[in-house]
Amino acid sequence: MAAAAAVAALGRSLSAALRLPRARPGLPGMALNLYHKNLPKVETLPQVKFLHTTVSRRGLEEFFDDPGNWGEKSVKSGDSWNIKQLRGKSSEDLHKLWYVLLKEKNMLLTLEQESKRQRKPMPSPERLEKVETSMKNIDLVVREREIALRLLQTGHEKPVPGEWRNDFLGRTFWYSYKEWPIPWHLNKKHKKKRFYYLPHVNHFIRLRLEKALRKRARQQSLERTRRKVLERKFPDVAVKSQSQ
Amino acid sequence: MEMTKLDIRNYLERIYNVPVAAVRTRIQYGANNKRNHRNQRVKKPDYKVAYVQLGQGQTFQFPNLFPEKEQDAETRSFDDFRDKYMEKEKQKEEGDPRRGGVPDWFGL
């Protein structure tokens, strides 16, 4: 009996007639297709209203794509946002765009998981990469602005002060200061760390340098041979670049 | 994976406008039994599962994201071509019809 009651409760909380979701909500004061810059203008289907007994589930419907796209083999989408395009936007616009992209990413991830479950190919998975690069670019732009503001206000680039240090292997790295409850000369574990190297390490520094130089020379020669091959295959393009 | 019940509740309520009544989470352990070609164990990643109970009498049915749609002319023609090719291959494999399906291994 208890099990039946529990199952009934479960059914009540989960079951519903299949509702056709409506068009995607746009945030106020914004163009609807903000997340993909060059999205082709799609005609919206006529709104078909079904009887709702619940509050508008605009929320959970946002985890899924436009229902017209369900079952399609591929969905058209524009390019990702470039850093140059984003630098011209205001901070409020970037904030809104970030959340639009976040919701889009959640939608694509649910689609990916569902396609794995149904063992079907996900329609146009390149959308995920585009969204991720757009979000990364927004992050970069915001960081740049933050650094610029900090430079103007305090004169420091980095939020946390630090310095260049050598480790016991002779490598140079940026050590950023941390907040400690006790000074470093009372910290036993910290005193075991060596921020200097002994003279016998110079030999290995030299070897590392040679390795890096060899790698760089290899990359440059590879680039040169690739360019020569291309010039041989497409001589007309090579002549144009030389004349320019 | 680091999202707590409170985080999930706030996320859904503020970003998606979904009223949440209760959230329960658990961590699903990913198995480490499979082995690769080097006999090293390959781990499936662990992940967190959240069970969210919607509030205010809301209901939700997970939609069918891959409904059957009618194929376009290209895929239909390709399927026809493929079926015809398979038929031809089968006909080639069949032997003399007068032998009544008996393989050629048997003499006479």
TrEMBL record, chain A:
A Gene Ontology biological process term: mitochondrial translation
Superkingdom: Eukaryota
Main subcellular localisation: mitochondrion
One GO MF term attached to the UniProt entry: structural constituent of ribosome
Keywords linked to the UniProt accession: Mitochondrion, Ribonucleoprotein, Ribosomal protein
Family the UniProt entry places it in: Belongs to the universal ribosomal protein uL29 family.
Name assigned to this protein: Large ribosomal subunit protein uL29m
Organism this protein belongs to: Taeniopygia guttata
TrEMBL record, chain B:
Gene Ontology terms for molecular function: structural constituent of ribosome
UniProt-annotated location(s): Mitochondrion
SUPFAM superfamilies in alphabetical order: Ribosomal proteins S24e, L23 and L15e
Segments of this protein annotated with the region Disordered: 66-108
Comp. bias (Basic and acidic residues): 67-101
InterPro entries: Nucleotide-bd_a/b_plait_sf (IPR012677), Ribosomal_uL23-like (IPR013025), Ribosomal_uL23/eL15/eS24_sf (IPR012678)
Primary site of residence: mitochondrion
Gene3D superfamilies with a match to the protein in the record: 3.30.70.330
Any Pfam family: Ribosomal_L23
Claim: Phosphoprotein is one of the keywords in the record: no
Gene Ontology cellular component list: mitochondrial large ribosomal subunit
Keywords: Mitochondrion, Ribonucleoprotein, Ribosomal protein
Chain ranges passing through the membrane: none
Keyword Mitochondrion set for record: yes
Protein family according to the UniProt entry: Belongs to the universal ribosomal protein uL23 family.
Name of the protein: Large ribosomal subunit protein uL23m
Organism the protein comes from: Taeniopygia guttata (Zebra finch)
